[in-house]
Amino acid sequence: MAKYLHIFMVSLKLGLMSFGGPTAHLGYFYDEYVKKRKWLDEKAYSDLVALCQFLPGPASSQVGIGIGTVRGGMMGGIISFIGFTFPSILILMLFSLLFTNSEADFSWLQGLKLVAVAIVAQAILGMGKKLTNSKSTITLAIFVLFMSLLIDHIFIQVISLVITGIYGLLFLKPNSIQAASRREKLFHLPKRLGVISITLFITLLIMLPIASSLTNNIWIKMFDSFYRSGSLVFGGGHVVLPLLEKEFVPQALISPDHFIAGYAAAQAVPGPLFTFASYIGTSITGISGGLLATVAIFLPAFLLLFGILPFWDTIKSNVYADGFLKGISAGVVGILIAAFYNPIWTSTINTELDFVLATALFILLMFFKCPSWAIVLIGLLLGIVFY
């Protein structure tokens, strides 16, 4: 019980301070779980990030679930998710219930966006040293960086990672299977869980639209819409927003004004952007609708992750899979750099003052070793004072 409480408190702290979107979340996770607490090493973390980049759904939330699973099994993964997402869910549901004015002044949030710049920059440097330490891996990272920034397509990151993975499979694999299988087993999950999870994921994806079309029940229709949105989205929370808009605004289940106000609120709170579903569900049918929406949109992430993780250690021990993951991990560094530039840098560093304050936060974090929570508080204070 003490272990689960510890997992919950650590993830809750991250849920309260993780501003800046999924890339920033990976930075916070890296700082807290890898550098500070050493719940898993650099290689295991990069492999988990690479896996979650491939899966549809909220990548940062899935990474958090995976880390919780490393620490405390399946229940640890669930508790880690609850801690990380609870603040965002609660705030957005309350905002939906109390929504009166979408013109509130959120200019002080600029300080928290500056924190995201510092956190992600630190994560890129830390992961880059470990994952791009050769000419080949540096080239792969640059390739993914260029592809991500120059080609505007929903699947470009996944396509780029496949290419880097194939390169790694051919040219970066270790010399022997023994060299690939020395790592300690991370996920102690039964393979039966994996089979059941994947089967349930596919069954719901097929059956829910059929059930929705055969009934006018609003609860089934909502569950179907949120579940499909969480199942078929690559690229994180920002990509799911247009899907949710098409599911609910044309049907007059939520007004355009309320949708936009909720989107602004989701950008302002810490934690995963997928909790925007909590706001929409609450706007449609109250608290029960918000809870249903939250479960439905995150359920695919759980089913896919728990479907893969029981087999993950076996997959990684294969010499070819090891090379494949090395290529993908290098590509993930490129994705982080691309996201650092756009949207984090481009939407945050607009003036000389922004640059100076972000640099100061980075120096405090990187060289003075200030903890992440202190950097968040300093960034919040800077936002209040200067913006």
Give an account of the 3D structure.
It is a single chain. The chain is 78% helix and 0% strand. α3 (42-54) packs across α4 and α10 packs antiparallel against α11. The protein folds into 2 domains: 2-187 and 304-386, no CATH class; 191-302, no CATH class. The protein has helices at 2-17, 22-36, 42-54, 59-98, 110-131, 135-150, 156-171, 177-180, 191-213, 218-231, 237-248, 256-268, 276-285, 287-316, 319-345, 352-366, 372-386. The longest helix is centred in the N-terminal third of the chain and has 40 residues, at 59-98. The chain is mostly helical and 387 residues long. The protein has 17 helices and no strands. The model has no long low-confidence stretch (mean pLDDT 87). The chain crosses the membrane at residues 7-30, 78-99, 111-128, 140-172, 193-214, 260-281, 287-312, 324-344, 356-386. Keywords: Cell membrane, Membrane, Transmembrane, Transmembrane helix.
- β-sheet strand percentage: under 5%
Average pLDDT, all residues: 87
Helix/strand class: mainly alpha
> Strand-and-helix sequence, N→C?
HHHHHHHHHHHHHHHHH
Radius of gyration: 21 Å
Which geometry do the CA atoms define?
globular
What is the count of β-strands? 0
Q: Helical element count?
A: 17
Q: Quickly count the domains.
A: 2
Low-pLDDT regions:
none
Kindly report how far apart the N and C termini lie. Answer: 44 Å
Give the % helix.
over 70%
**Biggest beta sheet attributes:** none
InterPro entries: Chr_Tranpt_l_chain (IPR014047), Chromate_transpt (IPR003370)
Transmembrane segments: 7-30, 78-99, 111-128, 140-172, 193-214, 260-281, 287-312, 324-344, 356-386
Protein name: Chromate efflux transporter
Family: Belongs to the chromate ion transporter (CHR) (TC 2.A.51) family.
